[in-house]
Amino acid sequence: MSIGKRLIDLARSELNSLLEKAAHVDGDDDDDDRSRPRHGSEYGSMSDAELAEEIERRRQAREEVEQATSRTRRPEPRTPPPRRTAAGDEAIRKAYAALEVPAGSDLETVKRSYRRLMRKYHPDLNAGSPEKQRAATDLSQRLTEAYKTLERHLRR
Predict the structure, then answer these.
(1) Cβ distance 118 to 140 under 8 Å?
(2) Contact assessment for residue 149 and residue 142, using Cβ atoms and an 8 Å cutoff
(3) What backbone phi and psi angles, to 5 degrees, belong to 79?
(4) How far apart are CA 89 and CA 79, in angstroms?
(5) pLDDT one-digit tens code per residue, 24-53
(6) Whole-model pTM above 0.70?
(7) DSSP H stretches of helix in the chain
(8) Residue 95 burial class via C-beta count within 10 angstroms: exposed 0-12, middle 13-18, buried 19 and up
(9) Tell me, what DSSP letter sits at residue 74?
(10) Which distant-in-sequence residues (6+ apart) come within 8 Å of 132 by Cβ?
(11) Are 46 and 54 in contact (CB under 8 A)?
């Protein structure tokens, strides 16, 4: 039986016993309350102190199970939150501007804009003159750098 199933069964039994206890307290007017069947519950004949002890015992058992399961789980590696610096914010703003998208755009928008600009300014398409090719190479390198910066930022 899985631990989850055990915990659910435990919670159900505690809830049922509390509901029966509440029904018993509400129905004190009926003398034949004890003669009614308890649907298999052994808690109907317990006193308040015994019931409180049983609930406490079950709570402790549940905590022990939770502690045992938490020890077997591997802790997820925690990455520290990214440090926000003025230089980092400025680099991200420049990257958005280089890709001609509004600041705060999602990764899909950034990707579409990068591909559109690379199709327009790719060095192979501007091979007519050496000056144009140099300018296109420089621009495509800046676009790629801006895209990589935003990709790292948006994938965090």
Answers:
(1) yes
(2) no
(3) -100, 135
(4) 20
(5) 776 655 544 444 444 445 667 778 888 888
(6) no
(7) 3-26, 48-72, 86-98, 107-121, 130-155
(8) buried
(9) P
(10) 126
(11) yes
